[in-house]
Design brief:
Layout: H1 3-27, H2 51-62, E1 65-70, E2 73-78, H3 81-89, H4 92-95, H5 102-106, H6 120-133, H7 135-138, H8 142-158, H9 163-180, H10 192-207, H11 214-217, H12 232-262, H13 267-279, H14 285-301, H15 303-319, H16 321-334, H17 350-362, E3 370-372, E4 377-379, E5 382-384, E6 389-392, H18 394-399, H19 401-405, H20 466-483, E7 484-490, E8 501-502, E9 508-509, E10 513-518, H21 521-533
Parallel strand pairs: 2-6
Antiparallel strand pairs: 1-2, 3-6, 4-5, 7-10, 8-9
Helix pairs in contact: 6-14, 8-9, 8-20, 9-10, 9-14, 9-15, 10-12, 12-14, 13-14, 15-20, 16-17
Binding site for heme: 463
Main location: membrane
GO molecular function, one term: iron ion binding
């Protein structure tokens, strides 16, 4: 065959392949969504507030899978748990990556587990975390959680107006003890590591804010020199990156040092022992760096979300005094007034359990955590483009009856339950914007949904620390309700306030104040015992 003939056949084959790929892409349409403008796409459709609620309202017009295109970036919103489970669980190999954020990379956050790309390193991260936070091992942390909960209520009794700082210290102290064997000392706001955590949370929220940074839409801007006019984003990133390095390195080095000098165990020391036993030698520089960031993810990944959740709980209790009294009555009956609740009491505290579920349901703290696709995919006839931001709208599942009723509960364990459509009458999920723990009790209709099945994420990105998150929140709720009445919620202008939430990297209550006062003389006596024992 002549060279010209070979060239002709080669060109024909290549053209055929291109046409086949093009036909396959064209034969499946993108999911429906708002009409796009030339070049700009849906840039003016992105909601500026109430983002999750707005996406949920769109489901009535476009269905439960919604597509948007904004400045070269593609978004797919999943407004039912069924769609999220189908993609993130059943097709996890395709949907377990995280979107690339140039700004998060510039400030150093992509080294953390939450933002880490899917691959072998992430699997190593998660294997170490599963080893430390499996259901049985998580019980080992109950005692230290109880100790920190006692410190929390003591601090609230001494300085109730500073409740948010006390809550931050509570969760930071738990995470630091588990990760590094570090004992937080001093009053709220005085510990360096807790303050470093809080500062990093602010950096993360700012760096991760959707639409804030032009460099995330036009990555080539990352190569602009920091001194160049308009490159303020780069100057800010350089100014805060050293904080992320301090955040990961300082407590990590502390944990290794105290393990050597005093034999103090921690996630760090136990993980070093595990890894070195597997390789039969000392950690490599690569594994040392991996472990450093895995440990950092323990006290970064959960502290800010748990603080937002507990802040929401306090606001809700102040706004719903009848619910608060019912929960306190159950504690008095089941536990008594001379001690605090323990995890062994949990099965008998049915109203408290319903209350906790309803706090999670009313305002999911992280309602739109993005995944991204590693390749093109077809789902229900729609084409999901490679690299799209895929976001499960857990707020929608919690609030809209039509989204809720299509929920299919799946046990996130090795012994996974078979799926069954939960097709219930909408009357079982009335008034979704009202706080009603009774919806989770038999007398309230025995709602089958447990929000904790989905608020911790989906698939291979599901939070590995769910058991510790559950127990630490249980202790915070029961200790606070045992000791205090929470009343008089006010906004910064002094006006009465109902639960209201701010959008952002996390959804948290808008600024508010409330009165936190001891319930009774027995509560005062219990606080006095705590002060004396401490």
């Amino acid at each position: 065959m002549s060279h010209s003939a070979v060239l002709y056949v080669t060109i024909c084959v290549l053209l055929s392949c291109v046409l086949v790929v093009h036909h396959r892409r064209r034969s499946h349409s993108l999911p429906p969504g708002p009409r796009q403008l030339p070049f700009l796409g849906n840039v003016f459709d992105i909601p500026r507030k109430d983002v999750a609620a707005t996406f949920a309202s769109w489901s009535r017009q476009y269905g439960d899978i919604i597509y948007m295109h904004v400045l070269g970036r593609e978004f797919v919103i999943l407004n039912t748990a069924k769609a999220a489970l189908d993609l993130f669980d059943d097709r996890g190999i395709l949907y377990s990556d995280r979107p690339r954020s140039v700004m998060s990379d510039l400030v150093g956050k992509t080294r953390a587990v939450l933002f880490h790309p899917y691959g072998e390193q992430l699997k190593k991260h998660r294997r170490l975390l599963r080893n430390a936070f499996n259901p049985q091992r998580s019980k080992d942390y109950w005692q230290l959680e109880e100790e920190e909960a006692r410190r929390l209520v003591s601090a609230l009794a001494e300085e109730p107006k500073n409740f948010l700082a006390h809550v931050r210290q509570y969760y930071g102290a738990i995470a630091l003890r588990i990760a590094y064997g570090y004992q937080v000392k001093g009053r709220s706001g005085e510990d360096r590591y807790v303050n470093l955590t809080n500062e990093l949370a602010r950096i993360t929220a700012k760096a991760s804010e959707p639409g804030r940074w032009l460099v995330d839409s036009f990555p080539i801007l990352r190569y602009v020199p920091a001194w160049f006019p308009g490159a303020g984003f780069k100057r800010w990133a350089q100014s805060v990156r050293h904080k992320t390095d301090e955040f990961s390195a300082e407590p990590y080095n502390f944990a290794k040092d105290i393990a050597t000098r005093a034999g103090q165990t921690s996630f760090v020391s136990e993980s070093i022992e595990l890894l070195e036993s597997e390789i039969g030698g000392r950690l490599s520089a690569e594994d040392d760096e991996l472990l450093k960031w895995t440990a950092a993810s323990i006290y970064a990944g959960g502290s800010d979300t748990a603080t937002a959740l507990t802040s929401s709980f306090l606001l809700i209790m102040a706004a719903y005094p009848d619910v608060q009294r019912k929960a306190q009555s159950e504690l008095d009956t089941v536990v008594g007034r001379d001690r605090f609740a323990m995890m062994d009491d949990q099965p008998r505290l049915t109203y408290i359990d319903a209350l906790i579920k309803e706090v999670h349901r009313l305002n999911p703290v992280a309602p739109l955590v993005p995944h991204t696709t590693l390749s093109d995919d077809i789902y229900r006839g729609y084409r999901i483009p490679k690299g799209s931001w895929i976001m499960a709208n857990v707020w929608c599942v919690s609030h809209l009856p039509d989204c809720y009723l299509r929920y299919e509960r799946v046990a996130h364990s090795a012994a996974r339950r078979s799926r069954r459509a939960m097709m219930h009458d909408p009357e079982t999920f009335p008034r979704p914007d009202v706080f009603e723990p009774e919806r989770f009790l038999k007398e309230g209709g025995a709602c089958p949904l447990d929000p904790r099945d989905y608020i911790f994420g989906f698939g291979r990105r599901r939070c590995p620390g769910t058991h510790v998150a559950d127990s630490s929140f249980f202790f915070a709720v029961t200790y606070i309700l045992a000791i205090f009445d929470i009343t008089n919620p006010r906004d910064p202008d002094g006006n009465p306030m109902r639960p209201a939430y701010a959008d952002g990297y996390l959804s948290h209550p808008k600024p508010f104040t409330c009165q936190i006062t001891p319930r009774s003389k027995s509560a005062m006596d219990l606080i006095s015992q705590l002060v004396l024992s401490s």
